[in-house]
Amino acid sequence: MIVDLLDQTRLPLQDCDVCILGAGPAGITLALTLARLRPDWQIVLAEGGGESLPTPDENDSYRPAGDDPGVYPVGATRLRFLGGTSNHWGGWSRPMDPDIFEPRDWLGNGGWPIAHAELARHYDHAATWCEIGSNDYDADTHLEPWRDALLDVSGSSLLCHKLFRFSPPTRFGVRYRPDLQDASNVQCWLNATAVGLGMRGDRIHEAELANRTGLRARLKARHFVVAMGGIENARFLLAAAAGGAPSDSGLASPALGRYFADHLGFAPALVLLPARLEYGRRSHESGPVMPILSLKPEAQRELELGNFAITPVAHADDQLIPHRYGRNEALGLRGDDCWWYRMQVVLEPQPDPDSRISLSGERDALGVPRLRIDWHMLDSDRERGDRLLQALASEWGSRRTGRVRLMPPELAFERSPTFVAHHMGATRMGADAEGSVVNGDCRVHGIENLHVAGSSVFPSYGFSNPTLTIVALALRLGEQLSGRSGTGTA
Amino acid sequence: MERREFITGSLGGLSLIALATTLPGCRSGPAAPVVEPVQGLLDSQALAVIQQLRGTTPVALAWKARHGGGESPDREELERRLLAMLETDEPVHASAPHFSERLAAAVSRDFEAGRLCEIEGWLLSETECLAATLRLVLYGETEPAGATDWRQGELAEVVDWGPRETTRGVGVNVQPDGHSGLWFKIDHAPSWLKIEIDGVVAPTVISEAVVTSGLYGELRDRILDAPGEYPIALVDPMQRIRQPIGHFVVKAPPPYLVLEDGSTSVFCAVEAWGPDVTFAGRPSNPQREGHEGLWIRTACAPDQVQVLYDGDALVTTNDRGNGLITALLPPSHFAVAREARLQLHDMETGEVLDVGVLVVKD
């Protein structure tokens, strides 16, 4: 059932079994999963927005404190309405690579407290929820028909091929609205913004909900799940913690709000590579796929680099080196025509405790402290980007493949990595409250019945777009909370 | 990233031996005339390899400029440095193709060792910069022949495309930014495919369903302003292959008549018509059931046109594409000798255009 609280003077329910705060991909997936696994439970899914694109006023709570828009355009990257940011998702999908879950000291990264294998089954089901034709990402199999249009990465190459798949994209609010409407044990409340948590000992006993028409009420539940988005999760928990939290809990963790990260996208180089390379999206019987270049795990270790997605995109003429330069066998090229490609790169950032979300003294219309975002890029990330270019110049030069041109100064902007709106890390997952907010089960350390869903729990970031992993984690959380398994049907 | 300094190679006590051989030249292009032996450290076969380098002049010019312009290293110094870069455990040869292979191997070693020569951001090897510069010093800026020729070939199957014609000054499939859009249904269009319109590679967008391109800016103005047939082709700018697929036709606007009040008629001038003479009961252009067939050729006529025969409307067809109007004159209308006025009538506006007088003789 869907209920708009703008039309209500009191809450339709006073208590429930599970209260999920936020109806984006994580919240909707979790609510419907729990509804099926536990028909005996009553689930409330509380969404801060309505059913359509929010007005600037309705999206205002994302505005950082003060007049300074800050370094991170929060308002442009969040959507407060049913379906959340799936409403402007591009559909790019790929699971996190297994090596992302492992410790990588050179990235200042202790890995995930769960193994990749723990998510594997859920990725299968997440593909269904995201309406992706297949969860098979085996590049060798799928790319064989196009081998001639891809770079040779055989033998000792640092590189390998990986695949992206594509969701239509699924707008979770539209796609699953009928399910929310029909589920007898789910109440999806619109215009019900969570503004606080009531805590007793090591348990949350109620959530405070409010909206702009003046409704302000409390909902009791046995379990609470914060699924408000990669930025709001941290903001909301920081605000909740300000009211007092156990000192050894995740709410008091120094990690709360820190390690805020985004994938870094940039185009640092022009490259001369064999002509006719095709790294675009293409049709496949299992659904559209797109190949990319990435670093082999052993190359990451050897070069102490993070993970990268590299896409050569055919580019216009270069004034200095013509494409026929590739015919110079005597200069260590293969004797065939080459072409220029712009190298589009997505770089995995190093987790950085100083990139953080914090609260200001200023409050939004519902009384929640406005956020501050101090997001920046580490010099070490820039250095890793440069090392990647050096490594590729060396590999392509020594393997007689091509040449690399660093983007000239007048295109410095393109060499400068920028955000791609994947909000991660600010309520990170880890072993203890000293360095993380939630444990491997996405439960807030030291709080028995408070969980977090979404990309804010990622302790490292890879390069994969986060939605598929968000949904997989939500499915896993659904099984854990319910104590039952079976999450496959979307 | 900081720019790297060019690191010069050293001879390191290497003894240089230039061997003349009769082995063929490098495989990277059409054979060049063998350069006559000259005084220097490289023999004629090695020089042929250097001469055949393609597209290296800008690199060489930039390298020379960085290294003192006119005061940059001379030929002998460049040859000396280049040969030093070929150092291996084997004796040094300067002859091709051994020279070509050693040169290529030296370039690979440079990249492995990080001996880079950065030219305007391009990370090149020291050896290739030296070789490029030596080529410039020896042979100037002239490129090997045939380096940039286009050839015709098949790139993809074009199922359909359009729009294919317009009238001068009239945009087709006009898009919000003002360009005239063209679409192409192409099976498995590769991402590097481009649409070429009248010799100009036009912006091309490739999706799974359709390839789109169009007439933009100056190209649009030039083509739409001048009636003619403009070649359309698929091109692969990398391999320089062109696949002609047809022409985009810009027709001259029809010559509408001007009425007495200065307004524009719905008709163009009648260019020809017939028959202008027939015989009572014996049609000149016999049609079914004894009808006389009349035809009128004109560049334009409205959709709702009728042929009038002394004011009687005849069954009329209007083939606008071919500029031909036809009508059937019933036997009763030419059963006896007479002279009858033929006219065209636009049923929508009521405008009438005189065509001529049909003479029916005994």
TrEMBL record, chain A:
What's the cofactor? FAD
Q: Where is this region: Disordered?
A: 47-68
* Keyword Lyase part of the UniProt annotation: no
Describe the location of the Glucose-methanol-choline oxidoreductase C-terminal domain by residue ranges.
Answer: 351-474
**Where does the source fall among the domains of life?**
Bacteria
Is Mitochondrion tagged as a keyword? no
The family classification in the record reads: Belongs to the GMC oxidoreductase family.
Name of this chain's protein: Choline dehydrogenase-like flavoprotein
UniProtKB/TrEMBL annotation, chain B:
What name is this protein filed under? Uncharacterized protein
**Can you name the source organism?**
Pseudofulvimonas gallinarii
